[in-house]
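Hi V.,

Quick status before I head out on leave. The structure for the redesign project is tokenized and pasted below; the design run finished overnight.
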């Protein structure tokens, strides 16, 4: 729809129609007003900081290894599940309490590592750490 009189209908209109641009800008403004508060509502968590320092093994730390078959090794000695629980209870009773360092094979089922953690928690062990290899 051209704006003008009938007399200059043969002349070319040299003005840009700004109404569609204004409509688009208003729609975008409304969308941004609605979405910005949604973006800011996030769960505030404090992520742990990883360090590349080598952990110094103290002699009283417990090194628990879980091999690919799910067998537990207490300080490089094979141990069955029942003996594992009694050893953890004895370690939890010590003062100061030793740290439990868990090294799990990457092929082991997560269930075996979770069972070791649950047994340690039930026994009263308060300090549990995971030993990993740094990526090359």
């Amino acid at each position: 729809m051209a704006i003008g009189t009938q007399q200059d209908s043969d002349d070319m209109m040299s003005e840009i129609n700004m109404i569609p641009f204004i409509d688009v800008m208003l729609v975008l403004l409304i969308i941004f007003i609605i979405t910005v508060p949604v973006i800011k509502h996030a769960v505030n968590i404090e992520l742990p900081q990883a360090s590349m320092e080598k952990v110094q093994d103290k002699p009283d730390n417990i090194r628990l290894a879980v091999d690919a078959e799910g067998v537990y090794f207490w300080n490089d000695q094979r141990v069955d599940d029942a003996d594992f629980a009694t050893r953890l209870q004895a370690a939890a009773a010590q003062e100061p309490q030793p740290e439990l360092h868990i090294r799990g094979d990457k092929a082991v089922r997560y269930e075996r590592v979770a069972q070791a953690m649950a047994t340690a928690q039930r026994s009263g062990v308060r300090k549990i750490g995971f030993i990993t290899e740094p990526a090359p």
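Above is the designed sequence. The chain has a mean pLDDT of 80.

G. will cover questions while I'm gone.

Best,
W.
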